[in-house]
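explain this:

___
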Amino acid sequence: MKLRELLADIEVAEIAGDADAEIAGLAYDSRRVEPGTLFFCVPGQRSDGHEFGELAVEGGAAALVVERLLSLPVTQVRVADARAAMASVAVRFWGDPTAKLRVAGVTGTNGKTTTAFLIRHVLEAHGTRTGLLGTVKRVVGGVEEEVERTTPEAIDLQRTFRRMLEEGDAACAMEVSSHALALERTTGVRFAVAVFTNLTQDHLDFHADMEEYFVAKRNLFSSMGAVAPGSGTRRQLPGTAVVNVDDAYGARLARELGEAGEAPLLTFSPRGAQQADFRALDVFFDASGSRFRCLGPGGDVEVRMALPGHFNVENALAAIGTCHALGVPADAAAAALAGAGRVPGRFEPVDEGQPFAVLVDYAHTPDSLDNALRAARKLTGGRLIAVFGCGGDRDREKRPLMGEIVARLSDACVVTSDNPRSEEPQAIIAEILPGMTDSENGEATGGGPGGHESPRGDVSVEPDRRAAIALALGAAAPGDTVVIAGKGHEQGQEFAGGWKIPFDDREVAKEELRRLRSGSGV
């Protein structure tokens, strides 16, 4: 495709060189440049793509998209925003795949992964081959693939959509992160449905405050139905917004969308609010799963699934509303949910024959940790023991908040390392511990929800995550529940300089349980 054709949808300040250069590929990483590539010099948080322009030329780049002209012997296209241009060019280069692929985008702080999994499961059960893009894995044409980030960069994203179409997918369920929205990775994606789960504190290392965080999420809904100039045939109707109105930010979003009339709107309420389109009533869950009545436009249906916890009721209701917007009746969605399996690392049980429960969960925000511990409390007849830490180089404000939640909702806990990255694990722990003390007497607080006042053990500190897991498991008695929170499905632990060691909470827990059983008869 000629460079001039690729630039049809963007505002170009100037073209220095041959506007009819033939373009064979796109790249933003100089290591992926091949002869004929259009290379985007995208400024980033850690490095500036302009610094790699020379390497791109050496690799055979046919042209560069820049924000400032470089002293290099190659055609250059100067634009105001190279990242935004990259998204628009990627859509055109890959043939605007989401004009045909029905994409359901799920955004929010918590629940994105499980909701996307459930949407895909329901659509597949209803006969629609569906791809998946998310934190845990990518599925293209029924084949599972590993992922590097929740929402890929625009070039990779559009390439993947094209592959989905070529492999027979008719739809895609995808997680949409606030980073992706703020960095315009999803610009040009035609969302058939956009889902809002909730918004609670997270990513304040990236966003200035909660308002900026909300605005980034709202961008998913603001862009629905927009048509880029000269982009060819697109869907004529905007996608449908599916919004959780039990969440304060969700209620605000629904109100704003309703007032603006930007897109068809469906609302859902896991707590049964009268004004919602889909409501969950008579909710019950235990260790085997959950059940509830879903009251929606099509009537009243019974939903049963093997996913325990009120947060999974929220995820299921979001999936039902989404699939309704995509043409799947609620009774068919409910029937499909009965066969939905657990999502890796999300409230996932680890069973090696021990007389107590072990749950591994990705909870790494205050709200998700609160939800996980409250759900675990309802499932245990004994003590609730938590193992958790906080990630390095991430929102520091949430550290004492998470400490307070664990101190309040668990009977005993081990504070450990998560992914420390460039920070010292002990320094991170030192910022967690103040939240675990009572301001009046300086002692660790305890207790749990619903008036639970059983005495708790001391707060233990063990920076070595494996040792911390072993410590918690070793302290568990028959009937107790151990929640290992923070990393979920992750299979590595990140340290300074990008160094990563293999580490999977589920596998480590299994190994330590086997060791305990062989050593002490557990």
